[in-house]
């Protein structure tokens, strides 16, 4: 499916800002499930862009604006062709062989970044107690991950006012509510608690045709989880929407948790406050 994304980030400052230094991780990746055919970035005030790949292979654009400005606008536009992920996972290795691979030194060395706990995904007693509710499935780790994703969707209430960007898994377990970032961190922590590599994914979710044909609804960037199934590879699950990742999903990048893959982050010099406005438009271009 061909999908077009427009993303506008606008910072408005109470007093002129100077020496603004920023990083953008807003370029869709090209992988086995999607291909990015076009991507543009515009900055106002005009700034030179420096591009590189970070440690996790995410495309990064960095820039700085030295002169005083009352507004900073970042616009990106991309065209991506997506497809559903392979159904081969359903024909994976037996659970015993999967667990043997998980425990192998080769796999642990290769994916160590996605096995260790982080600031957002600490392995607390509360997390381990929650993970115990999801024993390993005899059918294999794909079925277990699917059941975990569905369980998180059922166990927690989606509430955009309940949490914030710094909410940890411990906070989420106490509140029993949150947003996509919180659902993703929780699933990642549970996966890592059994030794399964899991990573945080940032991107977009096309839902236009699910809104009754109306485009008059607020859209936003999205977050989900990729888990490494031994013998199969990385597969995406979205516990927020109770589904596996398919053609509706456009991946920007991945990391250990949200901190690694913040879409827009930066610092500036100024004495006043700021207002942030983000506008996202995700459209299907053809059938």
Automatic annotation (TrEMBL):
Residues 172-241 form the Transglutaminase-like domain. This is Transglutaminase. It comes from the Bacteria. InterPro entries: Bac_transglu_N, Papain-like_cys_pep_sf, Transglutaminase-like. SUPFAM superfamilies: Cysteine proteinases. SMART domains: TGc. PANTHER family: BLR5614 PROTEIN-RELATED (PTHR33490), SLL1049 PROTEIN (PTHR33490:SF6). Pfam families: Bact_transglu_N, Transglut_core.
